[in-house]
Amino acid sequence: MANRRLAPASEQPASFAFSSENAEWAKGQIEKYPEGRQASAVIPLLWKAQEQNGGWLPRAAIEAVAAELGMPHIRVLEVATFYTMFALEPVGRFWIQLCGTVPCDSCGARELKDYLQARLGAPGHVSADGNFSWLEVECLGACCNAPMAQINQDYYEDLTPELLGALMDDLAAGRPVKIGSQVGRTSSEPKGGADTLTDATLFDGSRVGAWRQRFEDKKAEESSEASGKAEAASSEQRAAADPKPAHPASGRAAEGKSTDAPAQRSAAGETPVKSGDRTDAADPTESAARPGTPAPSAAETVARAEAAGAEAGTQSDLPRDEPPPQPVASGASETVDEPQPAPVKKSKPKRSAPKSEEN
Ligand code: FES
Q: Could you give the count of Cα atoms lying within 13 Å of 4 in the half-sphere of its Cβ?
């Protein structure tokens, strides 16, 4: 973490005042904010004061900004000491802010720090030739291309100790340098170049033409399918409107008029029930239960009983042409094993009360 202290008194200038040009610029910044909110311009004014003072903020500049904005000195000092974008000590011609936060640290920032320590000495001190000073700072928002460093106003990314050394040599010598990635990648694309969207036809329009042809082919195919379905539906409708009888050989039952239904036979003047069906229809139980049906004769009763017995597996011994046997009258000569009634116990006659002699 950076050491955020003001420079020693020996390095502090006696006073600070904005140049007329910068004073006009500062006035424009303050006017951006409503009355009573001028303190919102503190960062732009501190930044301009640092720029005017050669890249670092002396105490006099902090106090001048506070007076300009009507703020207590301590409040402006709090801002200046919080943000590492404000250098509180003199800096070299090239001020190196090395990111030491985790992503950059994981990608080699520690080696870069060791390199700077070895080449320039402790952070916060200007090199002997006056060209460099450095400071470890927190994330500068270029983590994708870690490790990185900000030198004055520009970012330099994908650094190694060798690349950083060569970069510092070029800066010190006044040679042109490449800003951004030092390994040649564009923006934050993968190292080694882009590995997606590499098909040039995506950008020259030819792929778009291929896609359009594909859509048109698919549309034509769908149209053809829809036409086939419409034709099939039309055939079904015609079949429903004009049905054709199924061919007997097709395996389907031929539908025709039933000619032996009882109702049809009755309508045709025939006997509703055929002679072969009468036996099946002879159900004495049902016929006896039907209201309005005439009572069967004795012979019919015998015949039905025999038929019922035959169906139940029994045979009647009754003669067909004789009436059913009648019970034998009491006192007849024929012996009949009938149950004898239980003897009746004669009860004694109640004696009436003797008549009174007076009567
Ligand atoms: S961690 Fe280094 S730029 Fe974000």
A: 14
**Ordered mean pLDDT values, 10 residues apiece, the chain (359 residues):** 83 96 98 95 98 96 97 97 95 97 97 98 93 96 97 97 98 97 90 82 73 83 89 79 58 50 70 56 46 57 61 52 54 47 49 44
CB atoms within 10 A of CB 191: 10
Homologous superfamily (CATH) for 94-181: Glutaredoxin (3.40.30.10)
- To test ligand 1's pocket by mutation, which of 1, 98, 104 has the most ligand atoms within 8 angstroms of CB? 104
Which residues make up the CATH 3.40.30.10 domain(s) of the chain?
94-181
Any ligand 1 atom below 6 A from CB of 159: no
Indicate the fold that domain 9-82 takes in CATH: Arc Repressor Mutant, subunit A (1.10.10)
Whether residue 144 has its Cβ less than 6 Å from ligand 1 = no
- Mutational pocket test of ligand 1: of 98, 101, 111, 144, the residue with most ligand atoms within 8 Å of the beta carbon: 101
Answer yes or no: pTM beyond 0.90.
no
Which residues are CB-contacts of 102 (< 8 A; sequence separation ≥ 6)? none
pLDDT at 199: 81
